[in-house]
Specification:
- This protein folds into 2 domains: 288 residues, Rossmann fold, CATH 3.40.50; 213 residues, Up-down Bundle (Four Helix Bundle (Hemerythrin (Met), subunit A)).
- It is 56% helix and 9% strand.
- The strands form 2 sheets. Strands 4-3-5-2-6-1-7-8-9 form a 9-stranded mixed beta sheet, with helices on both faces. The chain has a two-stranded antiparallel ribbon with strand order 10-11.
- The longest helix is centred in the C-terminal third of the chain and has 43 residues.
- The N terminus is likely disordered.
- It is found in: Cytoplasm.
- One of its GO terms (cellular component) is presynapse.
Length: 649
C-alpha cells in the first residue's frame, strides 16, 4: 500500500481526519512530494516566458457545462471562493496555480494582459479581483475573451497543481449574449483541449445523462481513446433514489471507459454557502458523506472519491505527464531554435532591442548611407548601376535638340535676307544692312532654348532624386519614420538645387543674347569654312590679314561683308553658341543637382543624428520588420527556455 492509499485508508477507518478545523482558507493538506514542485514550477516558468506560443506545454484544462459544479471543484482544490452565479461566470481562461508552502502565510497574485500584476494576502478578495479582471478583458457585459488570467495561490493548505479553468458550455444565448456565444465558447475550449499535451478534466453532474454531456462529447472528439481525459462526477447528493448503481457503473468505467478514469466528489452547494459552511468543514462533510454512503463508500476506499483524492490524483497525473513530455519539449525547443536561427539569417540585421545601443546603430546606418551618397556624387556609382549611364541619354537628347535647331535658324536667317528690303530695312541706304536686325534673330532663337533647357533640368532631377531615394529605401526600408524624414530631405534639397540651376540657366541664356565671341574664335570658324572661297579670296594674300594675330584686316572684312554671306556667317556663330550651351547646361546640372546635392545631403544626415529621437527613428512597421522582431522574440524565448530547463534538470 502506497502513501496515498495509507492516507485514504486512515480516514476510511473513522480515525482522526487529516483536515484541521483551524484551516479557514485551505481545503486540505496534500501529501508533499519533494520532486513535485520543481517540475510544476518549471512548466509554469516556461509558460510565463511565453514558450507556449511556440510549443504545447503539459497542462490540465477544466471543462464542463454550465452549472456542472466546475467552480465548486476548483474552490475545493484552491481553498478560495471563486466567482459564482447564473449564466457564464468564467468569461476568460483562468490559470489557477496552486503552490504548497511548507510554512508561511497565505498569499495570492493575480496577473493579466496590460501589465497588471497584483499581490494580495486576503483570500476573500479573490472573487472580486477575478471579476474585475474579466470585466477589463472581456467587457462588463456577458461576452467572453481568450486572454488568460493567472491566479497564483501560495499556502501550506493546497497541493502543487496548475489548472486552466475554461468558460462553461452553453447552448442558448441569454441576457444579451451574442447569438453565437455557444460556438465562441466551444472554439475557445477546443483551443486548449485539442493540444496533445493537455490533460482534459471533464466535470459532469451525477444527476444528468453522462452520454449526452457536451463537455464529455467534446473531449471524446479530440481524445477518442480517452488517454488524456479524467472525468469528475459532482453533486452525488442530488441523484434520484435508485440511480446510485448507474453512477457507480460510470465511476467504475463500465459506461464510457476512460484510461484515467473517474473521481466522484461532493463539494459545497449553494445552501452550504448560504449557511456559511467553511471549506474545511465542507471537506469533512464530504468525507463523512462517502464514508457512510451505502454505495459509494467503496469508491472512497478505492481512491475514486473525495476532493483530496482528486487533488492527489491530479498532481500525480500532471507530474507524470510533465515527466513524459520533457524529452519531447526539449527536442521541440532545440528544433524550433535552429529553425528560427536559420530564418533570422534571411533578414537584415535590424536595430538592437536595448535602447542604449540604438544610438550607435543609428550612427552606423547613417554613415553607411552617407558613404553611398558620397560615392554616387563622386563617381556616379550606386550598387550595380552608374547614374551617368542614365544622364548621358538626357544630355545627348539636349545636344541633338540644339543641333536640330541649326536648320530652323538657317532657314529663318535666309528668309530674313530674302525679305530684308521689304520687311527689315530701316533708315540705312540701299545695299546696306543693319546688324541689330540680324542680332534680333539670334536673340529670339536663343531665348527659345530656355524651355527645353528647363525640361532637361527637370528630367535630370527626376533621375538623380530617384537614385537618392533608391539608396534611402534600401538603407532605411525597415524604419518608416527615418525613411520618411530622409526622403523628404532629399526632395527639399533637390527643390532648392533646382531653383539655383534654373536661375543660372536663365542667366546663361540671357548672356547668350548679348551675341559675343572673341574675334579669334570666329576667325578660326571662318578659316575652317568654305566662306572665303565663295568670295574669291586668296588666303595667301597677306593684305587680307592684320599682322598681329591673323585676324582679317579691313580689306578682308570688306570682302566678307556681303548680305548673301550673312546666313553662313551667322550659322558659324550659332555653332559657337551650340558649343557653349551643349556643355554648359549639363555641367551646371551635374554640379548642382548631383555633386552639390549629395554633399548637402551628407551634411544634413550627419546633423540628423544629433538630438534625434532614436527610438522613434528606428521604429519598425513593415511586414519584414515585424517578422524580424517576431523571430528575435521567439529566439529569445526559446533560448531562455533552453537555459531554464538546463538549470532546473
Amino acid at each position: 500500500m502506497d502513501d496515498q492509499d495509507k492516507l485514504i485508508d486512515y480516514d476510511s477507518q473513522g480515525e482522526e481526519s487529516s483536515f484541521s478545523d483551524s484551516q479557514t482558507h485551505g481545503a486540505f493538506n496534500s501529501h508533499f512530494i519533494e520532486s513535485v514542485q520543481p517540475l510544476i514550477e518549471l512548466i509554469d516558468s516556461l509558460r510565463l516566458i511565453g514558450i507556449d506560443k511556440d510549443i504545447d506545454l503539459p497542462s490540465i484544462a477544466v471543462v464542463g457545462d454550465q452549472s456542472s459544479g466546475k467552480s465548486s471543484v476548483l474552490e475545493a482544490l484552491s481553498g478560495v471562493a471563486l466567482p459564482r452565479g447564473s449564466g457564464i461566470v468564467t468569461r476568460c481562461p483562468l490559470e489557477l496555480k496552486l503552490r504548497k508552502l511548507k510554512k508561511g502565510p497565505w498569499s495570492g497574485t493575480i496577473s493579466y494582459s496590460g501589465g497588471h500584476n497584483e499581490t494580495f494576502y486576503d483570500p476573500l478578495k479573490v472573487d472580486n479581483l477575478v471579476r474585475e479582471a474579466q470585466n477589463k478583458l472581456a467587457g462588463s457585459k456577458v461576452g467572453i475573451c481568450d486572454k488568460l488570467i493567472s491566479l497564483e495561490i501560495s499556502s501550506p493548505d493546497v497541493c502543487d497543481l496548475t489548472l486552466i479553468d475554461l468558460p462553461g458550455i452553453t447552448r442558448v444565448p441569454v441576457h444579451d449574449q451574442p447569438d453565437d456565444i455557444g460556438d465562441q465558447i466551444k472554439n475557445l475550449i477546443l483551443k486548449y483541449i485539442a493540444k496533445s499535451e493537455t490533460i482534459i478534466l471533464v466535470v459532469v453532474p451525477c444527476n444528468v445523462d453522462i452520454a449526452t454531456t457536451e463537455a464529455l462529447r467534446m473531449a471524446q472528439d479530440v481524445d477518442p481513446e480517452g488517454f488524456r481525459t479524467l472525468a469528475i462526477l459532482t453533486k452525488p447528493d442530488l441523484i434520484d433514489r435508485g440511480a446510485e448503481i448507474d453512477v457507480l457503473n460510470i465511476v467504475q468505467g463500465k459506461v464510457i471507459p476512460l484510461s484515467k478514469g473517474y473521481i466522484i466528489v461532493r463539494c459545497r452547494g449553494q445552501s452550504d454557502i448560504n449557511n456559511k459552511i467553511p471549506l474545511s468543514k465542507a471537506m469533512e462533510m464530504e468525507n463523512n458523506f462517502f464514508r457512510n454512503h451505502r454505495y459509494f463508500s467503496s469508491l472512497l476506499n478505492d481512491g475514486k472519491a473525495s476532493t483530496r483524492c482528486l487533488a492527489d490524483n491530479l498532481t500525480k497525473e500532471l507530474v507524470d505527464h510533465i515527466k513524459k513530455s520533457l524529452p519531447y519539449i526539449i527536442e521541440q525547443i532545440q528544433t524550433k531554435l535552429l529553425s528560427v536561427q536559420r530564418e533570422l539569417k534571411n533578414y537584415e540585421q535590424g536595430p538592437p532591442l536595448e535602447e542604449e545601443l540604438m544610438g550607435p546603430f543609428l550612427s552606423d546606418i547613417i554613415m553607411e548611407f552617407s558613404d553611398q551618397i558620397n560615392e554616387l556624387g563622386k563617381t556616379g556609382h550606386s550598387k550595380e548601376k552608374n547614374i551617368h549611364a542614365l544622364l548621358r541619354p538626357v544630355f545627348k537628347k539636349w545636344d541633338i535638340y540644339l543641333r536640330g535647331t541649326e536648320i530652323s535658324f538657317t532657314a529663318r536667317v535666309n528668309e530674313m535676307v530674302d525679305k530684308y528690303n521689304e520687311m527689315h530695312r530701316g533708315r540705312e541706304l540701299l545695299t546696306f544692312s543693319e546688324f541689330c536686325e540680324f542680332e534680333c534673330v539670334i536673340k529670339d532663337h536663343v531665348a527659345a532654348l530656355q524651355e527645353p533647357a528647363m525640361e532637361t533640368l527637370k528630367h535630370v532631377r527626376e533621375i538623380v532624386q530617384n537614385a537618392f531615394r533608391e539608396i534611402c529605401y534600401l538603407s532605411f526600408d525597415l524604419y518608416p519614420p527615418l525613411k520618411y524624414i530622409v526622403s523628404k530631405m532629399i526632395n527639399d534639397i533637390q527643390s532648392k538645387q533646382e531653383t539655383k540651376v534654373e536661375k543660372r540657366i536663365k542667366e546663361f541664356i540671357h548672356m547668350e543674347q548679348l551675341v559675343f565671341t572673341q574675334d579669334k574664335v570666329l576667325q578660326q570658324k571662318l578659316n575652317d569654312s568654305d566662306i572665303p572661297q565663295k568670295t574669291g579670296m586668296d588666303s595667301s594674300d597677306e593684305n587680307l590679314y592684320d599682322d598681329d594675330d591673323t585676324i582679317f584686316s579691313s580689306k578682308g572684312c570688306a570682302l566678307l561683308d556681303s548680305r548673301n554671306l550673312v546666313p553662313d556667317k551667322l550659322v558659324l556663330y550659332y555653332e559657337i553658341i551650340y558649343q557653349r550651351l551643349t556643355d554648359y547646361v549639363p555641367m551646371l546640372i551635374i554640379l548642382f543637382m548631383l555633386k552639390d546635392a549629395a554633399k548637402t545631403l551628407r551634411h544634413q544626415m550627419l546633423e540628423l543624428r544629433n538630438g534625434a529621437d532614436v527610438v522613434k527613428l528606428l521604429s519598425e512597421d513593415s511586414e519584414r520588420g515585424r517578422r524580424r522582431a517576431e523571430l528575435k522574440q521567439r529566439l529569445e524565448r526559446l533560448t531562455q527556455a533552453q537555459e531554464l530547463i538546463s538549470n532546473r534538470l
